[in-house]
Amino acid sequence: MRYIFAANTKEIDKRPFIEYLGGSAVSGSPFKGYRGDIRVVDTRELEDEFNIQIQRYHGNGEKLIEHHVLSLPAQDQLTDTEFESLTREFLEGMGVDNSMMWLAACHNDTDHSHVHIALCRVQLRFDDSSLASHYGLLANKNDFERGMEIVRVLEQKYELTPTLSPGDNVNNKNQASIIRAISKSVLSSPLETVSDFVHAMAKRGVQIKPVLNKTGKIKGLSYRLNSEDGRWISGSKIMSTVLTFGALCGKLNFSPARDDATLGLGANPKLPAVSKFERDVKTVSVGMMTSVTHLSNQAREFINRNNREGVISIETDNYYKIGFKFNFNFTPQTRPNGKNEMKTWETIVNLGTKKHATPFAKAFSDADIQNILTTTE
User: Fold this and answer.
1) Which of 63, 173, 219, 358 is deepest in the core (most CB within 10 A)?
2) Which residues form the MobA/VirD2-like nuclease domain (predicted)?
3) What percentage of the chain carries pLDDT values higher than 90?
């Protein structure tokens, strides 16, 4: 908590860039005005409230406080009100209720606006009768995976740039998220058996293989995009509540006599033919605008040398307003094939964009224009 609000003397310089977003504590913001040029912060009342909540728990759990960080991509911005709403929705999705203690603060001391959340896991619980109550701990099994699922929903709702999950291979463009999205779409259609699911996923370019225990029984499932850079990812890492073998059997009928062959097991395996997975053409969004005629000679030469011609589409609904954010999207006329052509296209986009980032920003030197490239999709 002291770290979140830069309460330590050595972090005084950070205090002007931190804002209290909210929480369930009665004492509210720890910022108590200024003493000269120094912002005064006192977290003692907040600490007391958290300690009272902690003392209500009498179990054996050891991890009673969690620290979450929600970080925006550098080119995205939210108002404090929007960030507070997003934070509350994230916590609600994680199972936080009104009986719990939490607080949040927004940090703007880096290129990435981010929120720090201190959460006490002590939660009021009710027995089966719904009458007798006690204080237990908020479940944290698979909390990272659950948290990332909630983040994906919030990215869409608040129109934020989708980003890779921590630990994902940047060259794989978040394959777990792609497989998750495909599986949700497949499972929204009428399916009865595990074989139906395997065949439907195969048509969408996703391979499935079983993971066996020492006795030869299925203990899990792994998934892979049928593409040049596809990699096997366990169902528990993609979506533990749906894509593990146990979770899938809870939704669909599984019969070894019927489904083992579809999974490539048994004396006569009958694996389905898997369609080649192809990503959509990549688009790079930036916080400024130019036209094809303004591309640099270097970018033009690169395009001509690689037999590529760029087409730029521009979204400018609020073009004449200062402080707005909009996109312009580079899209190739034909889909790049393979890693080398895709890397070539990315280089073309970056050359054209970065060349004009500086002069465009200078033209709007008094405006709050974002001039940093987004991640590539």
Assistant:
1) 173
2) 36-160
3) 37
**DSSP string for 29-94:** --EEEEETTEEEE--HHHHHHHHHHHHT--SS----EEEEEEE--TT----HHHHHHHHHHHHHHT
CATH 3.30.930 fits 9-157, yes or no: yes
The pTM of this model reads 0.48
Which 3 state secondary structure label does DSSP give 119? strand
The DSSP 8-state label assigned to residue 193 in this structure reads B
Domain with CATH 3.30.930 in the chain: 9-157
CA distances, 88 to each of 94, 124, 151, 225 (Å):
10, 18, 12, 34
Interval 248-292: pLDDT, tens: 999 999 999 999 999 999 888 999 999 988 664 444 444 443 344
What's residue 306's pLDDT? 43
User: What is the Cα–Cα distance from 143 to 256, expressed in whole angstroms?
Assistant: 32
Distance, first Cα to last Cα, the chain: 36
Over residues 47-60, the mean pLDDT reads 94
